[in-house]
Specification:
Distance between the termini: 35 Å
CATH class: Mainly Beta
Number of domains: 1
Helix content: under 10%
Shape: globular
Radius of gyration: 18 Å
Number of strands: 24
CATH superfamily: Jelly Rolls
Number of helices: 1
Oligomer: single chain
Strand order of the largest sheet: 1-3-4-11-6-9-12
Largest sheet: 7 strands, mixed
Length: about 280
């Protein structure tokens, strides 16, 4: 587990590209037959990538979270961004097709993640887990791809027509803090999250996926009047503190997992900024 300590917007103007990437870009989460994690002290969110290729992988207990098991004091949303697979939680098996989401509540003890077609046409599963501290236990719940609350956003004229699937949210799967879903851009649309916004009460993370090896996302971050950018590849995540915008444009079609944790779970609790006012 890699530690990322919290930062202030006052730090950003003095950062070069290397430091921006070191603090806010999570690379290397998905390595064959490994479990890799990043702990950000912004709202104590943990990002985990699990890539079971040759055998199932058990979610470990990282010493940094000081718990007997990972879910002793935490909850998580897990999205499968690879081929089909299964997640077994305390003996109960859940099948996750690509894009599906499993919520795992506080108190779960044994979590095993596996691929169903590692050597076949669809390839191995790849699980992206976003976790936050939890004060109570909610039941483990599966939402299949496309079966959450679906919102159509944007406009083809501004190249940001997109389908947003809300999985874990205040009117969907219950959780203590985690809010999670998947957004897919329509053909010909490349911009996400326009107009850009912040939500000063929550930390957010974007995991971009579905890109070819030579495609990239230009992700815009920072305060609206002091923006910077990160060049992001497939299955790389961006940590977005509460004071930062989070918007991007791709060189090819893509999807992304968005996940939040913090003060509240209101999806529309955000402060928007017109593109003409950004710098």
């Amino acid at each position: 587990m890699e530690q990322r300590y919290a930062t202030s917007p006052e730090h950003v103007p003095g950062m070069d590209t290397t430091e921006l990437r070191r603090r806010y870009l999570a690379q290397g989460l998905f390595v064959d037959d490994e479990v890799n994690a990043v702990y950000t002290h912004h709202d104590r969110v943990v990002l985990v990538g699990v890539s079971p290729v040759t055998a199932p992988l058990t979610l470990p207990t990282f010493p940094e979270i000081r718990s007997d098991v990972f879910f002793e004091h935490r909850e998580a949303g897990i999205v499968n961004v690879g081929g089909p697979g299964t997640i077994t939680v305390d003996g109960t098996e859940h099948t996750l097709t690509p894009g599906s989401c499993l919520y795992v509540g506080r108190g779960a003890r044994d979590v095993v993640l596996a691929s169903s077609d590692a050597g076949g046409e669809h390839g191995p599963a790849a699980y992206y887990l976003v976790s936050a501290p939890a004060h109570t236990a909610y039941p483990t719940t599966l939402v299949e791809a496309g079966h959450g609350t679906v919102r159509e956003l944007g406009d083809a004229l501004t190249s940001n027509r997109r389908t947003l699937n809300q999985y874990i949210h205040e009117n969907g799967v219950q959780s203590c803090q985690v809010v999670m879903g998947v957004t897919t851009l329509h053909p010909g649309s490349m911009w996400n999250t326009l107009p850009a916004h912040t939500h000063d009460r929550r930390t957010e993370a974007y995991l971009y996926f579905g890109l070819s090896t030579d495609a990239r996302i230009i992700h815009i971050m920072g305060e609206p009047t002091e923006t910077r950018h990160l060049v992001v590849g497939n299955r790389e995540a961006v940590i977005s503190p509460s004071w930062s915008v989070h918007s991007g444009v791709g060189s090819a079609s893509y999807s992304f997992v968005w996940a939040m944790a913090g003060e509240n779970q209101s999806f529309d609790d955000m402060d928007g900024f017109a593109i003409a006012d950004m710098r």
